[in-house]
Design a protein that fits this description.
heterodimer; A: mainly alpha; Four Helix Bundle (Hemerythrin (Met), subunit A); two-stranded antiparallel ribbon; elongated; B: mainly alpha; 0% strand
Chain lengths: 305, 111
């Protein structure tokens, strides 16, 4: 900000290549909208992959979405809508030079953004524990931390009967597919109730004794739903798309938090006390697009059927 | 609203921001409720319609497009247009293939 490259119109600093503050503001805004257009197209590739895969393999998406928690997704949608409100309010406060309200709104927006990531972390953690990951990392297994609550409906008996065996198997379960198969064998030998031997044909997809029905979250409404249908081939496709789309979106949320921190520091230094609010407006525009994309992600990933 | 000195600025009223917020929350509730009703193939279109309604509200009011220069809206709409073209043509292409070459591989499409 060298002094002689600026002139003043309407009390605002205007760079020398702009006629006035209006033109400067409109140029910044147009640039931002062009950037947002590229963002839409950036996510567009993933939405396209989603559309093609879902039209060809709807059963994968119906199967996969049972493992997403609808209420957590809805909670995150509400959190992001609230953050959009506070972001829009922050713009208003900056326009009116209400620095205290501006700081409050920026802080609230960041709080909501962190809340969103927190909920997302809980969801990712649950997927991680169950091995519901992308592509070749997809190794679904029962939640070995709460074995008593897990139903192995495919075999028609409760795992509570073999709880002890599951606890012994816990360490082995973390190692990998091959070891998982051995774990099942251990249960067969040591469980108080005889477990049918794992079907060898199934070994490449999922250990048979840990059928997909056992993956249902026992604490959610879904426990009362009819048992999940048999796992379709290539179920990992859903989780690849899920992690790519929500992951890219999550990175955008992180970027947004960084931008809001920058704005907050600016607000503390009095950058916006002069009526200069372009930065706040631009970051808010970006944040609204992040919200818009989540509105669609919530619908397409969590509310299949 | 009259505190601002710049003529090019549009300041949204707090009341408007809160009304839009309330409608967006209602829209979220509506989306979840609609997804619990089985409408068959219509479900996804109802959901997309509600989501798009929410997106339009955010764009018009929170993103100030309603009071902006129309060219900004044009830039944004052109991105949406090319996105729809992209997805639409990809879907047309995807529809040209035999989806169930391996019997039982894609049970969901009944091939």
């Amino acid at each position: 900000m060298v002094e002689n490259t600026h002139h003043e119109t309407d009390g605002l600093a205007v760079d020398h290549h702009f006629e006035n503050a209006d033109q400067q503001y409109q140029s910044a805004k147009l640039g931002m909208w062009v950037f947002l257009a590229t963002e839409i197209l950036f996510f567009g590739g993933l939405f396209c992959a989603y559309a093609v895969y879902r039209s060809n393999h709807p059963e994968i998406f119906i199967f996969g979405h049972h493992f997403l928690d609808k209420s957590l997704g809805a909670l995150n949608t509400v959190i992001l809508i609230c953050s959009s409100l506070t972001a829009a309010w922050a713009v208003r406060a900056a326009q009116l030079k209400q620095i205290r309200i501006l700081k409050l709104m920026l802080a609230l927006t960041m709080l909501f953004a962190f809340g969103f990531l927190g909920v997302k972390a809980v969801e990712y953690n649950a997927k991680w524990k169950h091995g519901l990951l992308w592509a070749r990392q997809y190794h679904p297994h029962i939640n070995h931390q709460e074995p008593a609550e897990v139903l192995i409906t495919e075999e028609g008996f409760e795992s509570g009967a073999v709880e002890g065996a599951f606890e012994e198997a816990t360490e082995l379960q973390t190692v990998g597919d091959a070891v998982l198969a051995e774990t099942e064998t251990t249960i067969v030998e040591e469980g108080p109730v005889g477990v049918p031997a794992a079907d060898a044909d199934h070994s490449k997809i999922a250990p048979a004794a840990e059928g997909p029905a056992g993956l249902a979250f026992p604490d959610s409404d879904e426990a009362s739903e009819p048992a999940i249908e048999v796992e379709p081939a290539n179920a990992q496709t859903f989780f690849s798309i899920y992690f790519l789309m929500t992951g890219l979106h999550g990175i955008h949320v992180l970027g947004g938090i960084g931008a809001f921190i920058w704005l907050y520091i600016g607000a503390c230094r009095g950058v916006f006390s002069t009526g200069h609010f372009t930065r706040v407006d631009m970051v808010a525009l970006y944040w609204h697009v992040v919200d818009l994309i989540w509105i669609y992600l919530f619908l397409l990933l969590y509310l299949v059927e | 609203m009259s505190e601002n000195e710049q003529s090019f600025v549009h300041v949204a009223s707090v009341r408007l921001l809160l009304i839009v917020w309330a409608v967006l929350i209602f829209g979220t509730w509506l989306t979840v409720s609609a997804s619990n009703i089985d409408l068959g193939a219509l479900n996804i279109w109802v959901g997309l319609a509600i989501a798009t309604g929410k997106a339009v509200l955010v764009a018009l009011y929170y993103m100030h497009l309603r009071w902006d220069k129309p060219f900004n809206a044009f830039v944004f709409m052109s991105a949406i247009f090319f996105l729809l073209l992209f997805i639409g043509i990809s879907m047309m292409d995807a529809g040209q293939y035999q989806v169930d070459l391996i019997p039982g591989y894609s049970p969901g499409v009944g091939g």
